[in-house]
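Check my protein:
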Amino acid sequence: MSGEDSIVLRANNVYGEYIVSPTTSIKAVNDVSIELRRNEIIGIAGESGCGKSTLIKILYGYISYPLTARGRVLLNNKGNSIDVLSVSEDYKRENIWWGVVSYIPQNSMNVLNPFMRIGDHFSELLRKHLKIEKDEAYKIAEEYIVDMGMRKDILKAFPHQLSGGMRQRIVVALALLLKPSIVFADEPTTAVDVVLQKVLLHFLMDKQRELRNALTIVTHDMGVHAMVTQRIVVMYAGRVVEERTYRASF
C-alpha cells in the first residue's frame, strides 16, 4: 500500500472559530493541515485551550453553534473522497458517523441517554445501520459485549447505575461497534484512576490492532502519548507547532 493510499483523512488549511457576539469571534483552530493514515495511532497534544478538542470536532464534522469552521476535510471512504465540511448533518448521520468515523467525547454522559438501558443503545445503533430486527440486534449486542470483556447483564443497566469508568468503556465499545475506519478519542482517560486508564488504553489499542484503523487520541497527558501513540502532533494557540514520530511503549 502506497503512502497516498494509506491516507484515510486529509485536512487542508482548517480554521475553527467560536462566535461570542454578532461582531466578535474567538479563533480556536488556525490554519491546520493534517493527515490521518490507516493502521496508525496518532496523538494530538498541547496545553488546555490550545484547540485540540475543537480540531477533532472539525475533523469529525460535528459543527454546531457557536462553532464555525472552514477549510477542507477530505474523507477517503472506499475510494470516494468526501468533504465532511460540505455535506449536511443528515448525510453524515446516515453515511459517515459511527460506521465510517466514530467519536469518543470526554464525558460519557454526552453520548449515553440516561433514560435508555445500555442494551438499547447498542441495539438501536445496530438496527439503524444494519437494518435488522430488534431481537437480532440485541443478540449481536450480547455477543459483542462479552467479546469486549464485559458482563452480559450490563446491557440491562441504565447509565447512572454504572461507574464512570464502566460508562467510558461502554462509550468506547459503542464507538467501535460498527468497525469504523477512523476513531477520534477526546481525553478518553480523563477522570479515571491509573489502573482503569491502562485498561481503557489497552482496550482501545487491542481493537485498533484488530481493525487496523486510524485511531486519534487527544490528551494533554504526555505519559499517555508515550505509551500508545506512533505519531504525535503538538498544538499551541490553535496551530500545529510540531509533528514527529513516537515509539509507543505498550
User: Anything to note?
Assistant: The radius of gyration is 18 Å.
